[in-house]
Design brief:
Strand content: 15-25%
CATH class of the largest domain: Alpha Beta
Structural class: alpha/beta
CATH superfamily of the largest domain: Metal-dependent hydrolases
Bound molecules: zinc ion
Largest sheet: 7 strands, mixed
Distance between the termini: 17 Å
Number of domains: 2
CATH architecture of the largest domain: Alpha-Beta Barrel
Length: 395
């Protein structure tokens, strides 16, 4: 069997940056063989400029919303954003499927090998059946009104079964790649939480967390923009009791059985929330979607706070309804623009190994360890002028 050998000025392993004294050796099909010192690598070494890295993991996407690119006005705030998405959701199925296909192709060419994807319908099933990249399917559960809990659960459960059938397990006791996941703290009733909690064991469970300041004001004092939204939707909110605590501290214990907890956005998360989360679970992943935060709320996520608390950070693109691209490199570029001191190896760890761990795919993805098939990508121009940085797929 033939081997391929790659040498570059910077070889990122998934957790550390090596230099050109090391050579990456793979099998023809991309399976990692080893990283060996240059003198031991023998002949036939391909030299590459820039950084070599395992493929990117996009921990938060809504592939089914890809047809909404450039349709939702920017910088309106979350409540109006959610309203626009719901109102503008209806398109001919063919246009939706076409946009899904193009978006997936785009992710593949931009070095993404795995996606944590939110699912509110089964429109992405045919695309995922092609098996071009790995998905963790988060079947979203939404329902603020307690009496609707059972019917909302039933609908989501049907989708959940459809996505479960997508992956034909080859091994006994395989890791799950589908979960039932609550949409957001402000959109899931206690009744609905109780119906989905029995499924969390072994799963990666995700939730949109503290994406707007109004989430905390709802849970603390039952006021703010969400009350306005419920009134616009003519909902009876008399059942809702504020907890007097932040949103995260009001709901997170519901998720403690999950194998991995993936908190998305966290734009308004405070230090006390991060400490509280660490007390609930050892498997908390904080997903940053900086471009979407800029698009919707013009806010920056609390990057420094998370780093100070040694929180595990992962990256996501969110959807084309709230982002101009589905590119993890574009997320890294924006992070570097606002936080120029962030070390590149650390950013790349968020984008590769940390993401693979959050999606429970680190057995095969996320790092250059022997036997894995993480993809090999080449990132150019990241150190100098981030505007021109680009990524190409090597394997
Ligand atoms: Zn989202």
């Amino acid at each position: 069997m033939g081997f391929r050998k790659f040498r570059s000025s910077q070889l990122f392993t998934g957790s550390a940056m090596l230099d050109d004294s090391q050579v990456l050796v793979t099998q023809e099909d991309g399976t990692i063989e080893a990283i060996v010192p240059l003198p031991d690598a023998g002949e036939g070494i391909q030299t590459i400029d820039g950084i070599l890295s395992p493929g990117f993991v996009n921990c938060h996407c809504h592939l089914e919303l890809s047809h909404m690119q450039d349709r939702i006005p920017e910088k309106t705030g979350l409540v109006d954003f959610v309203f626009s998405v719901v109102k503008d959701r209806h398109f001919p199925e063919e246009a939706i499927l076409d946009a899904i296909d193009r978006a997936e192709t785009d992710m593949l060419t931009h070095g993404i090998v795995a996606v944590g994807d939110i699912c509110n319908n089964t429109l992405t099933v045919p695309q995922k059946q092609k098996g071009r990249m790995a998905y963790y399917n988060f079947v979203e559960v939404t329902g603020f009104l307690p009496p609707a809990a059972q019917s909302r659960f039933d609908t989501s459960y049907e989708y959940y079964q459809a996505f479960q059938q997508l992956t034909q397990p080859q091994t006994p006791n395989p890791k799950p790649q589908t979960s039932l996941s609550p949409h957001a703290p402000y959109s899931v009733s206690d009744n609905l939480w109780k119906l989905i909690q029995p499924f969390f064991n072994r799963q990666t469970v995700t939730i949109h967390n503290q994406e707007t300041a109004f989430e905390d004001s709802l849970f603390k004092n039952k006021e703010g923009d969400f009350m306005r939204m419920y009134q616009m939707m003519q909902m009876d909110t008399s059942f809702f009791q504020p907890t007097g605590k932040s949103s995260l501290q009001s709901y997170l214990a519901n998720m403690k059985e999950a194998a991995q907890i993936l908190l998305v956005h966290n734009t308004f998360t405070q230090e006390a929330d991060i400490q509280y989360a660490a007390s609930v679970s050892d498997h908390i992943n904080w997903c940053l979607c900086i471009n979407a935060n800029q698009y919707i709320e013009q806010r920056l996520p609390p990057v420094e706070l998370l780093r100070q608390q040694d929180a595990r950070i992962v990256l996501g693109t969110d959807s084309l309804a709230s982002n101009h691209s589905l590119s993890i490199l574009d997320e890294i570029k924006t992070l570097l623009k606002h936080f120029p001191h962030l070390p590149i190896p650390e950013l790349l760890t968020w984008a590769t190994l940390n993401g693979a761990q959050a999606l429970q795919m680190d057995g095969s993805l996320g790092s250059f360890e022997a036997g894995k098939t993480p993809g090999v990508i080449n990132i150019l121009g990241l150190e100098s002028s981030t505007d021109y940085a680009k990524v190409v797929r090597v394997l």
